[in-house]
Write a structure and sequence with these properties.
mainly alpha, elongated
């Protein structure tokens, strides 16, 4: 995967970085923990500017987050409740769960949205409650930009400062990301097995 990401960045520059970060939000196994340090390394070699790398990465993340936000917003809470009534086990939500989730999200979205962008898997999932519970799009965009901007900047600057050792970032964060993703999958399976309709 590293070579494929390298080739895209070298061939398409900022557009390639934005595309990769967009895809990372659509398909979480593509890791920002590899994309942004590699892009930062390219900037350290003078092939790209560091500011351009950080802006391109954050714009790609915003586009991916807004895609899932729009899908979830179109789905809407009423349809989600109907799905919960019919297929609650597979989405691991009962109608009572939806009410609790809405209450929690409405109280905590101001920190949950930006913090989720530091956690693999959650950076994609956080767009869904934001869209379903009709969080204002401008607010979602702003909070996403805060979280994604911070995380992408941390990774990009690390790759820039580490130079040829940029893969050290992925070497440490990659396994941690895999553990978190595996934990999310295990939690989903546990929820399916333990699900009790309301």
């Amino acid at each position: 995967m590293t070579q494929w990401i390298t080739d895209l960045v070298e061939k398409f520059g900022y557009a390639g970085i934005a595309l990769l970060m967009f895809l990372e939000n659509l398909f979480p196994p593509i890791p920002s923990e590899l994309i942004m340090p590699l892009a930062g390394f390219s900037a350290s070699e003078g092939k790209l500017s560091l500011v351009g790398v950080l802006v391109a990465g954050t714009l790609g993340t915003l586009a991916g987050a807004m895609f899932w936000y729009a899908v979830a917003h179109r789905l809407g809470e009423a349809r989600l409740r109907r799905w919960a009534g019919r297929h609650g086990r597979w989405i691991t939500l009962s109608e009572n769960d939806i009410a609790s989730l809405e209450h929690w999200f409405c109280r905590h979205h101001s920190w949950a949205v930006p913090v989720a962008h530091v956690v693999p898997g959650l950076r994609t999932l956080i767009s869904i409650p934001a869209g379903i519970f009709a969080m204002p799009g401008i607010r979602f965009l702003f909070l996403t930009m805060l979280g994604a901007g911070f995380w992408n900047s941390a990774l990009g600057v690390a790759g820039y400062l580490l130079g040829k050792e940029f893969d050290a970032v992925e070497r440490y964060l990659g396994p941690a990301s895999s553990v978190i993703m595996a934990g999310l999958v295990a939690y989903y399976i546990w929820r399916v097995v333990r699900f009790q309709p309301s």
